[in-house]
Specification:
ribosomal protein, alpha/beta, Ribosomal_uL4_dom_sf, about 210 residues, rRNA-binding, single chain, Ribosomal_uL4-like, RNA-binding
């Protein structure tokens, strides 16, 4: 499948790039997408949540009132969960949320996500460009020329480009990543996917293994 290559002004350069049907034109596997996105979101959790339980509270261990004759319930420790400042019952503990996922399933999920973007006409291929210095205004002008300034967008680079990355950091709705950093979640989270011409070969190489 051939896609027109645009310049940074959004105009057709007259050239076309061939996108592999095995990467950008497969039948999407929704379950693979679900599993990959689920793993990605799980890995965003630090798992450092913790509350002190009764044994970890600093406090006196003396019996705070006599056993009988008060007309109220028995109470043996100020660290009891029923008192303010006491330990928490079955509180959260540190946990590892990482999940294992087969490499082939992850590869299938990314190909499915790319195929969905291609099918929905939400994929653009732009010729490689760079800025002399990091400048948010210049990057915003490129998005405006491509007609995606008001859309959540993901720009995929062939190689690391510090000026482009720094220029995009102040724009909340846009993200710049290298083709090796591409994930199913990031592809689906963006309304528009912009591939630099040099990124196409890298993506197809990574996903056709």
């Amino acid at each position: 499948m051939k896609v027109a290559v645009l310049d940074i002004k959004g105009k057709d350069t007259g050239r076309k790039v061939e996108l592999s049907k095995d990467v950008f034109g497969i039948e999407p596997n929704e379950h693979a997408i679900y599993l990959d996105v689920k793993q990605y979101l799980a890995h965003q959790r630090q798992g450092t949540h913790k509350s002190k339980e009764r044994a970890e509270i600093a406090g006196s261990t003396r019996k705070i009132k006599k056993q009988k004759g008060t007309g109220t319930a028995r109470a043996g420790s100020i660290k009891s969960p029923v008192f303010r400042g006491g330990g928490r019952i079955f509180g959260p503990r540190p946990k590892d949320y990482t999940q294992k996922l087969n490499k082939n399933v992850k590869r299938l999920a990314r190909k499915s996500a790319l195929s969905l973007k291609s099918k929905d006409k939400a994929l653009l291929v732009v010729e490689d460009f760079n800025f002399e210095a990091p400048k948010t205004k210049d990057f915003a002008n490129v998005l405006k020329s491509l007609g995606i300034e008001n859309k959540k967008s993901l720009i995929v680079l062939g190689d690391s480009n510090n000026n482009l990355y720094l220029s995009s950091r102040n724009l909340r709705g846009s993200e710049v990543v290298k083709n090796s950093e591409l994930s199913t979640y990031k592809i689906l989270n963006a309304k528009s996917l912009v591939l630099l011409e040099s990124a196409v070969e890298g993506i197809e190489s990574n996903l056709s293994k």
